[in-house]
Amino acid sequence: MKLDTPPPASGLKKDVLSRIECENICPRGRWFYRGKEFLVWTTWIITVLVAAVAVAISFFVIMHRQYAIFEATHDSFLALMLDVLPYLWLLVFAAAAILALYHFRNTKRGYRYSFLTIAGATVLSSFVGGLFFHYLGMSFVFDDALGKYLPGMYVSQAMQEKRFWQNPHDGRLLATLREETASGTTAIVVDAEGTQWEVNISELFPKDVALLREGKQVRILGSQPSGEDSSFHACGVFPWLYSKMMTMADFKHDREDAILRLHEHRDRMLERARETYQAAKEGVRSASGSDETMTLATSAIPESVDQSQTESQCGDIAAVKRLRD
Fold first, then answer.
1. SS3 track for 212-230
2. What is the SS3 assignment for 317?
3. How many whole angstroms separate alpha carbon 43 and alpha carbon 36?
4. Which stretches of the chain are assigned E, i.e. beta strand?
5. For helices 138-149 and 115-135, angle between their N-to-C axes, nearest 10 degrees
6. Which of 95, 222, 229, 251 has the fewest CB atoms within 10 Å, counting from its CB?
7. Phi, psi (5° rounding) for residue 185?
8. pLDDT tens-digit readout, 308-321
9. What predicted TM-score, i.e. pTM, was given to this entire model?
């Protein structure tokens, strides 16, 4: 019986078989390609989640800093934002978005979509995820955890705020009450670095004193008398909000309360100046009617007003001056 001779192979078939033989290509099962597809999608999801975390922390910084008491720490709100903008997280977001875009393009059907479509979907997914994390209160958790577990590599917002307020030479102190003296005009506090301070509380409002007496860590705004390394003159006491998960309402209320008290210090200083000026004018009227006496008495009025302003150290701190300006 004569066997049929197979038809000669085409040129393309010969090329394919030759390449398989030369490159020693082995067939792979369906599981391999499914596993590869799963790995690509998993990588894309992880990079989008990282980008979402970056968006969440950026929202946390920008939205909450709008209620910061920047008058006490910076010359302007713009100076504050330039100081606290999360540049690291903006870079992380950009890098994660680029990686997510790359991995999506390498999925089984990723080639079907245009670059702009994939980029838009990636950025939109990151922003939606970031807003979701932020409104769940996870922004603070992420930021605080990174600051605790990566202390040499990452500075949390709480640590930045501590650096702003633990600066007695610029009139800011982060401290806890240790004891109050019998006179009721001074108190002994311990700052965030463990240093003990004698604080003059004579110009504090009752609300400030009550908050200080709670014994919790607080922010103290005031001034440090020149030549006195361990003395501080307090003008305002504000709660330390970074010891808990905060809401926008917490920050908003804190700023409104702080600005109100700074205005009260300003108004009290101006009222004292007016009272001193009126008293000086009455002194001029009751003085002798001679031209020489009238001239001397009138020239003393500006000096008297300046003296009344220095009696209130809180009317001369930087934060109150910024409100006046």
1. HHCCCCEEEEEECCCCCCC
2. coil
3. 11
4. 172-180, 186-191, 196-200, 218-223, 231-239
5. 90
6. 229
7. -105, -10
8. 444 567 766 666 66
9. 0.66
